[in-house]
Known about the structure:
Radius of gyration: 38 Å
Structural class: mainly alpha
Distance between the termini: 116 Å
Number of domains: 3
Strand content: under 5%
Shape: elongated
Order of helices and strands: HHHHHHHHHHHHHHEE
Amino acid sequence: MLRKISLLASMTMILSGCGDSETKVSYVSGDSTFSCAQLNESAALGNTALTSRILTSALSQLDKTYAEDTAIQRFYRGLVRKDADYSFQFARATIDACEGNAKTGVNRAATDALNALFARAMKEPRLATCQAYTKGTVNLDAVIREMSEPTTLVLGGDAVARTVSIVYSSKEHGAGYLHNEVTSRCKETPDARLWSAFGSVATPVVEKLYKEQQAAAAAERQRKEREERAARLETYSGNLYSTGKATCEHFRELNMLARPGYADSYKDQRIFEAALKATVADIPRPEMAHQRTAFEKALNHTGFYGGHFV
């Protein structure tokens, strides 16, 4: 009986030492091709080619071992091996795990790095997976805080953060919309990167808001154009003398509007041309014949040809 209790206690200690298989992985079997001493040296000397070969060698061993259907092993296959951000973090964590542990094999350091990185992914918003969000270890407030006050520099800016901030600030959507939609998406894809889930939820909303904004701006431009056209027609569609608007300023503007192809005339150019002709015809001529002749020459000299000034 005592022997059975002792055996049970031993097995319990062994299992507890292995940790939760969903959140931790055990060390790979077999010796590492490289030691941490070699990785430490190559990293210290800035030999990126050798460092990359050492890490690649470790990864090939991990690829063969971590093929089970557990959260951390799916994290390894889906993010560490496919997403550049996680790959970089994993490489950095492996190098850090080797520092001060020269005798350790790189495979062992890589396993420690993976366990540490997954633990971070369950609590750090920028690295979090959808599982962290549905479990509540990372919440909306933490994500928004990281997006508005990033703890790391993102070269070229963070497109996801910009997109999410628009939806978060939108009166039509806001925090509640983001939380509900991201929660729904994350339940479908628990192993996906949380940052990407926020982006995929926010992007179509921002596109819709942008189209609505563009449509509203176009409608406003059309409204202003209609008002401006109506104002031009009211002032310049008739003989300036008949309407009591025969000033030099109005005459110059009417002359411009009557020119063929003038942008502001739209389809009303003929109306303005007729108004200009009528206005010119009513300009008071001098009484003396020689004065009238000189006036007509002066009028032509100013540029009035064929019914409009040029």
